[in-house]
Amino acid sequence: MFTNFSAARPLKIMAVGDSITDDCSINGAWRLYLQPLLEQAGYPFTFVGRWASTPGGGFTKTQHEGMCGAVIAAPGMMPNAVHGYSGANVYLLETVADALTNLAPDLVLVVMGANDIGHGRDPAWVANHDMPALLDLLFSKLPQANVIIDKATTLRDATAGYSAYATNVPFYNADLQLMVKARRAQGQNVFLADMYAVVDYGTGFLTDHLHPNPIGLSCMAGEFFSRIQAITLRTHVFAATLIGGGADWKYSDAGQDLGTNWTGLAYDDSGWSHGPGPLGYGDPTVMTAVSYGTNAANKHPTTYFRRQFVVPDNVGVTNLSFHLLRRDGAVVWLNGAEVFRSDLPAGAISYTNLAQKFMGLEAAYSYYQSNVVVAAPLTGTNVVAVEIHPAGVNVPRIEFDLELLGTGYLPPPPSLSLSATATNLLVSWPASNSVGFTLYSAPSLLDPAGWSMVSGAVLTNGGLWGLPVSGGDGQRFFRLQRP
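Structure (tokenized):
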């Protein structure tokens, strides 16, 4: 998590990528829209890089490392020079290495994949060899940095012959998610932004259907902003990924109608199977295969999934952002209450309900975002439960995965007050922000081992908790702490 940035020491961000980051189609690209989001949220930051866009209209932080036509690994595919590099050298393993000779960003935002996949490169090789090589380069130069890489946008109907490889993009993105998950398990600060989901095929592209238009670029900036929030720690602001994409889920694929009790926190799912997402059957991007039964012409109409997540005691979650991959219909539950449903009829949901339509190419591989205002406290252990319904009992495939981001506030630590009663002293503290805290006492501040828990019945009065203590025990010090 980022913690050590301030006005005196702003966060240094390097935007790296191809023409979607460079100024080849729109000056400033997505960086133009990210600057005000970060500024309005109070982030002290600067963009760093060897190239500069044209400033104007409040766009002042113009440095970047975008390279029109760039691919990740050699050879470069450009017919002409870009930023002083010959076309054959316009690839990131070359250009980024040069940039890091004199630059040391704290955060690297990488937008890549369109040129690599659009030129027919093997998506598995790009995701599992070329992109890891770029990460190795970055972390060898910047061991403490954080890196956010993107899922590539759709190439459907893209010009320059790229559309011929559009069907490879979902496979590249699925492999990329798996690679990032493995890298994080190894302790690397690498994260994933889902540009495939946020840049809409119908409204987010220029006429070449390759470069995002202002709407698409603004959506990209919003996606990067939410991911930056999730990895920065700020005073009184909470943002975190509560469930990551590709996480391990428990599932029931036995073809049984479980009613609604299965959605609650207390439900016993110890006998369920489990595996990483995406889960489903019939699609190469599935990581965990679930059963549809014994009859391919009459598959199970419902498959159930559950996963727990924990919210720390000192956090107030106000909003949840669900990113749902589903094929075809889904109902999402939180702690036994329905949160939302997708492509299923209104009213009471039943085991035999089928989704209302089959999903097309982009839809089937998109993580759809639903923002939910939290009505009840989520402190401690919670459970997300999801049921997936196909559009027919003879469909060739279903698929499910879910990512959950939470935002809210970090209340200030509780403070103690001391007041006198007729017979003793009363130590009090606010009940609103002290869940999990216990009162401790010590006769001296010089002995760290001298603190002990204060026993007694805790009193409540006007939003305060309090414990009476004797006033005749000599000098004593009090503090609240979590055991």
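The domain at 11-234 is CATH 3.40.50.1110 (Rossmann fold). DSSP finds eight helices and 26 strands in the chain.
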